[in-house]
Amino acid sequence: MGRGGDADAMPDEFSLIERLFEPLAGPEGLGLRDDAAVLTPLPGRDLVLTKDAIAEGRHYLSSDPPDTVAKKLIRVNLSDLAAKGATPRGYLLSCAWSAETPLDWMEAFAGGLKDDQSKFGLSLWGGDTIRVSGPSVFSLTAIGDVPSGQMVTRAGAAAGDDLWVTGTIGDGALGLLAAQGDYGATEPEDRDYLISRYRLPQPPVAFGGKLAGLASAALDVSDGLLGDLDHLCAASQVGARVDRSAIPLSQAFATCLASDEKYWELVYGGGDDYQILFAASSKQRSTIESHAGEAGIRVHRIGALTDDHVNGVQVAGSDGQVQQFSRWGYRHF
Amino acid sequence: MGRGGDADAMPDEFSLIERLFEPLAGPEGLGLRDDAAVLTPLPGRDLVLTKDAIAEGRHYLSSDPPDTVAKKLIRVNLSDLAAKGATPRGYLLSCAWSAETPLDWMEAFAGGLKDDQSKFGLSLWGGDTIRVSGPSVFSLTAIGDVPSGQMVTRAGAAAGDDLWVTGTIGDGALGLLAAQGDYGATEPEDRDYLISRYRLPQPPVAFGGKLAGLASAALDVSDGLLGDLDHLCAASQVGARVDRSAIPLSQAFATCLASDEKYWELVYGGGDDYQILFAASSKQRSTIESHAGEAGIRVHRIGALTDDHVNGVQVAGSDGQVQQFSRWGYRHF
After folding, report:
1. B304, containing H or E segment
2. Structural domains of chain A ordered from first start
3. What interface predicted TM-score (ipTM) does this complex get?
4. Taking CB atoms and an 8 Å cutoff, what residues of chain B touch A55?
5. How would residue B184 be classed by pLDDT, with cut points 50, 70 and 90?
6. CB distance B84–A38 less than 8 Å?
7. Digit-coded pLDDT (tens) for A178-230
8. Is the model's pTM score more than 0.90?
């Protein structure tokens, strides 16, 4: 674990690492007392690596509780590993703390990391901590593994495959609106639920570990359902037909939608769900449902892949009408 | 490669990744078109992972050329791999660009990455890019490998081992002063040299790859020679005696030192050298010198390790006087 080369803050940063992060270190991290982590890969396994950063005021609100910021940072990365069929093993972390960050905020942040390490079975291997004059930025590299050659990519789906999604869609984006107070007449408990989904994504990590060798293609829903589906279609050279009524919505989201149809936009393009969108042969239905049951999560079949690669993603409404999305789905130009 | 969940900037960030980073991707990065990188580890090799971030105004100056910022980011990480005896393979990168960063700055930054990828033999595997309202922060995770069980730690040195350092010491810290204009009567070419050393550390990457199985302990000199040496001593439970006159200095640094003894402080505690400080049995002298010759770098024996763990680091001057450094060497309290 490095100090970031900042001589004036040196004792601080060393103490910080010792106090906050050493208790989180796995054996690969050598107590965070060396310059690097060392990993002896397991035979017959490939490593899967992903890296996502979050910034204050951009991916989380300054008023968000620090433990949920830490958990969000871990989970936005674990959703990528889960979507690749990987089991998480460890992570490296860069903390660029804003100058104003008090120690108790940092301690609560480390507490959030600790909770999620236990929950998801990974440990801290290294990283560094620096101070910046602007808002805080946290960057995490998560490492997982899969049986050799079995990482699930975006590119393996075939026309005719079922299209599945885990959890519910739209809660993260609506939760952000709720956290910002930009959310009308809804019951307080619904509001709390939605805000908690924005702050604390619930990626299906254990279920993701079962997707290797089962899903033909997958990715996490982070940019918006239809945009992400379009990525899968582009990579796999297929089209997709989504049955709008099959998209799983939380009760809180459905209540909101009943008051105004405009919230469909958050279902289609809201992002921040960190669920898994995946394709699989229809022969796998019972296996998929059984794995989901074991992992304690819900999966829904929301449509199927087609050979209409040219038109890409289509959504069929309950009235039978089909909406055509552009190649880039709900991307904002 | 992820987009960081920022809907408004979406087309921008996708295009940026395609334009700037896709050409840098190695096969493990899957064209940066998937959610994660996949690595099939080589049999008989351990992976070595390190992560260091740099921030604008903190680890580089806003006026520094963007290609050297990129190279500095790569090199401050490669110096850690080199000090562990590892050969670099790939990296993941998080760019948190300040809102003001223009495209041509980003392009020059990517150009710097490209140059150093070729120079040091590694490729881009993934990462993400976001915008922040404060100064830019870049975080890099570098991955290398070593023969299994042979990563060089800080902890393997024994009393009696030689103490070596690569390159020259102090140039980085003096170069920062020079870049800030805080540097007196020195020839312009010396100033240019020193600034270039601050901007562009020269970690001995190829030589580092030879240290596995050869050095008993090592680390990179990033926090300051004596402070880093103290880390090695603490981890190895030894003391050290450094011969001050043996510490390698550049001609530019020596000229400066001749004008004012105070610059010794930069030799002892200046940091930012990114050279390797290592210990090895005296039986290895000719092997070490031969590897250094092949790698085209210079190595100097600056002292030896002792069994005086209690007193830790001592420096013997040319007058025979011995200076005792505290357990934490030149750390600033």
Report:
1. strand B299-306
2. 12-147 (3.30.1330.10), 162-324 (3.90.650.10)
3. 0.91
4. 96, 130, 132
5. low
6. yes
7. 988 876 657 889 999 999 999 999 999 999 999 999 999 999 999 899 999 99
8. yes
Beta strands in chain A (DSSP E): 37-39, 45-55, 87-98, 123-132, 137-147, 162-166, 217-221, 239-243, 275-280, 299-306, 313-316, 322-324
Q: Around Cβ A268, how many Cβ atoms within 10 Å? A: 23
User: Closest Cα of chain A to B161: distance in Å?
Assistant: 20
- Chain B environment of A223 (Cβ under 8 Å): 3, 5, 7, 10
Q: Which of B35, B51, B55 sits opposite A92 (nearest CB)?
A: B51
Chain B nearest-CA residue for A40: B46
Cα gap A190→A329, rounded to integer Å: 29
Q: What is the pLDDT of residues B100-150, one digit of tens each?
A: 899 999 999 999 999 999 999 999 999 999 999 999 999 999 999 999 999
Query: What is the b/e burial string over B315-332, where b = at least 16 CB atoms within 10 angstroms of the residue's CB?
Result: bbeeeeeeeebeebbbbe
> What residues of A are in contact with residue B36 (Cβ under 8 Å)?
48-50, 80-81, 84, 86, 151
The string of DSSP codes covering B4-56 is -S-GGGHHHHHHHIIIIIGGGB-GGGGGG-SSSEEE-PPTTEEEEEEEEEEEB
Apex CA A286: angle with CA A280 and CA A292, to 5°?
A: 80
Q: Which of A14, A30, A35 is nearest to B83 (CA)?
A: A35
| Distance to chain A for B138, nearest Cα, Å | 9
Chain A contacts of B224, Cβ < 8 Å? 7
Kindly determine whether residue B92 and residue A33, on different chains, have CB atoms separated by under 8 Å.
Answer: no
